[in-house]
Design brief:
Helices cover 42% and strands 20% of the residues. The chain is of the alpha+beta class and 121 residues long. About 9% of the residues have low confidence.
Length: 121
């Protein structure tokens, strides 16, 4: 009888330890796949995108958005593209989208404006 009680306690401890070690890993996996909605608005003489709303991986840098817009609009390699948040400032290319969303996102979206010439800031 004492062996079964010991086995039961051992099983409970093992399952608790497994749950503890798996919990954070599972949460990290869900965070890695989480997307953030980004709304892209043309400014100045920049071409307007047909689709304005995009779901983007939260861990990507803002430079990935710039490259995507550049490629989507089929701009020449030498053409510049400026990206602005809240129509006021240009984030640095290494800024992570998640951080920008946490600071400047509203209504579950991050609104970005793009232009072919400097517009603000």
């Amino acid at each position: 009888m004492s062996e079964t009680a010991a086995e039961t306690i051992d099983k409970e401890l093992t399952s608790n330890v497994e749950n503890i070690s798996l919990g954070p890993e599972q949460k990290l996996e869900k965070q890695e796949t989480k997307k953030i909605d980004i709304i892209l608005h043309a400014t100045g003489s920049a071409p307007i995108l047909k689709q304005k709303k995009w779901a983007v991986d939260q861990e990507k840098p803002i430079s990935a958005i710039i490259k995507f817009i550049h490629k989507y609009l089929k701009l020449e390699p030498g053409e510049k593209l400026f990206l602005y948040i809240n129509q006021t400032f240009a984030p640095s290319p290494d800024q992570i989208i998640k951080n920008l969303y946490e600071c400047y996102g509203a209504n579950g979206k991050l609104v970005l404006h793009y232009a072919k010439s400097q517009a603000w800031g």
